[in-house]
Design goal:
Blueprint: H1 3-14, E1 19-23, H2 27-37, E2 42-47, E3 51-54, E4 60-62, H3 66-73, H4 76-79, E5 82-87, H5 96-111, E6 117-123, E7 136-139, H6 146-160, H7 166-175, H8 181-195, H9 202-215, E8 220-222, H10 236-250, H11 252-258, E9 265-270, H12 276-287, E10 291-294, H13 306-320, E11 324-328, H14 331-334, H15 345-360, E12 365-371, E13 389-393, H16 398-411, H17 421-427, H18 433-449, H19 457-465, H20 470-473, H21 475-485, E14 491-492
Parallel strand pairs: 1-6, 1-7, 2-5, 5-6, 9-12, 9-13, 10-11, 11-12, 13-14
Antiparallel strand pairs: 2-3, 3-4, 8-10
Helix pairs in contact: 1-2, 3-5, 6-7, 6-8, 13-15, 16-17, 16-18, 17-19, 18-19
Length: 502
């Protein structure tokens, strides 16, 4: 346990913070911290299985339930300074008698100068009864920073008496960011057992272990994908920008030392079906890091404070698995109503929480936020500094439509030199990428049914005429999006169309 963490804990106790709620899973680490803070203090511990146990040896002393335990140890605070340590009792914190007993201890600690007892509640699950809200201080154990991670790695290397290059240490230390000391040591042991040494290849092992964290949580979803940057037809400005950021991610340690800021992320605004979601997948592929999706709707809970706690855990989890791409699809729906009378208190608080994290984050979580209906976007999102860049994705121009046709035909091995791209471009004015893909799929399906090996320009044009484009189905919405975009400082994802297309 780091000394500054112990110092903060000690300062809380000295300033009469009567109930300290430690949100952590590793009881051994917390016991060490309490022991350092509580030298000369009587420590009494409650365990759900055995009741009163010896804090140092963990031997059972007296079988009892939590109510009996609290009544049993209550007077200890009059005799000497006492730490009352309650582990995994979150399920008991809806019991009025338990709440009253803990509240009485807290009040006596504050107001009775002859009473000195601090309650520690240690659990990974935070449950704060309304009656105890003003007495409880939630204490998070900070995750190790880069220098501390390097120290953990060096201690591991020294203990095993092995040699690891400094460049390797620096490189894997970056991959360990977001993990706690227990998890780092666990993965180092796994890496060493796998090959008897530590090298840069162990970054893949770290990544796999981080994916396990997501799978064990319902807060985020790992997205599997096959798409790459080559699957995007057009959007050249956006692709060039992402390729620059990819170089930074590939050389993060050197980039940081050089003085380069860690990329924060992008917001992509624009027409439905024009490649925004595809870009999120292609970004993860280009950066060679995992893609995780955050669905804000899944974070909403039924209890007071539950949604905010879920958001905090989700963002903390994204940091734990970084470097990663955090994809928030249709972000305008997640925070709909912000700034209007329609916004609920929970939504507003979640929005503020996310905005603060976005502004202050210094980790390697790269945000890809996508939005269709910009009219519902909170204006705070569109300010400079929230994201590295805002991009507008318009309906594809002629050159981009040609590329999209080529991509989908080649992917299905149906492209041939006799297809007239110019004719297709003229026929698909106002089509988006999804429309074009649908045209290709329908044409190939019909060719299969008719037992034809090759498809022609005429086949494709027939499917085009049978397809209702987005420009027809969402005419008013597209017009509205374009009118709003004109008043925003936003970069176009596409380059200007060339005069001659071949």
């Amino acid at each position: 346990m780091k000394s500054n963490t112990v110092d903060i804990l000690a300062s809380y106790i000295d300033s009469l913070h009567s109930i300290i709620y430690i949100n952590h899973f590793d009881f051994k680490v917390i016991d060490e911290a309490i022991e350092k803070v509580g030298q000369g203090v009587k420590c009494v511990e409650y365990n759900n299985a055995f009741g009163l146990i010896d804090f140092k040896t963990k031997s059972p002393l007296q079988e009892c339930d939590l109510e009996q335990f609290l009544k049993l140890v209550f007077d200890d605070g009059f005799e000497q300074e006492t730490f009352i340590i309650l582990k995994d009792v979150h399920n008991e914190l809806n019991n009025p008698i338990i709440i009253s007993l803990i509240k009485r201890i807290a009040e006596d600690n504050i107001y009775n100068e002859n009473y000195h007892a601090t309650v520690f509640i240690i659990s990974e699950i935070i449950v704060i009864p309304k009656e105890l809200e003003n007495y409880i201080t939630v204490f998070d154990i900070p995750l190790p920073v880069s220098s501390e991670i390097i120290e953990i790695i060096n201690e591991f290397i020294e203990d095993l008496e092995i040699t690891v290059e400094q460049d390797v240490i620096n490189d894997i230390a970056l991959s360990f960011k977001g993990l706690n000391e227990f998890q780092i040591k666990q993965i180092l042991n796994l890496a060493y057992q796998d090959g008897g040494y530590i090298d840069k290849e162990d970054k893949l092992l770290i990544l796999k272990e981080k994916e396990q964290l997501v799978k064990k949580s319902s807060m985020l979803e790992i997205v599997n994908f096959k798409e790459s940057i080559d699957d995007i037809g057009g959007l050249e400005n956006l692709k060039e920008w992402l390729e620059r950021k990819a170089k930074i991610f590939a050389n993060m340690d050197k980039a940081i030392k050089f003085g380069v800021d860690i990329p924060k992320g992008i917001m992509i605004i624009g027409m439905p079906g024009c490649g925004k979601s595809l870009t999120a997948k292609a970004t993860a592929s280009l950066f060679e890091i995992p893609l995780v999706r955050l669905d804000v709707g899944r974070l909403l809970g039924k209890y007071v404070g539950e949604s905010e706690e879920n958001m905090r855990k989700a963002l903390k989890l994204s940091e734990a698995i970084s470097p990663c791409v955090l994809w928030i699809d249709e972000i305008e729906k997640a925070f709909a109503g912000i700034g209007s009378d329609d916004g609920s208190g929970v939504t507003i608080r979640l929005f503020g929480q996310f905005l603060t994290w976005l502004q202050e984050k210094e980790n390697t979580v790269f945000i890809v936020a996508t939005a269709n209906d910009i009219s519902k976007m909170p204006p705070e999102f569109l300010r400079k500094g929230r994201f590295d860049e805002l991009f507008f994705v318009d309906l594809p121009n002629g050159e981009e439509r040609k590329k999209i046709f080529d991509i989908h035909l080649k992917k299905r091995k149906k492209w041939n030199k006799f297809i007239d791209s110019i004719a297709l471009i003229k026929e698909t004015e106002g089509f988006n990428g999804a429309d074009i893909e649908a045209v290709v799929k329908d044409t190939i399906e019909l060719a299969f049914i008719e037992e034809r090996e090759i498809i022609s320009t005429e086949d494709l044009i027939k499917s085009v005429k049978d397809t209702k484009s987005i420009s027809d189905t969402l005419k008013d919405k597209i017009k509205n999006i374009k009118e709003i975009i004109e008043h925003i400082d936003i970069k176009c994802a596409s380059k200007a169309e060339k005069d001659n297309i071949s």
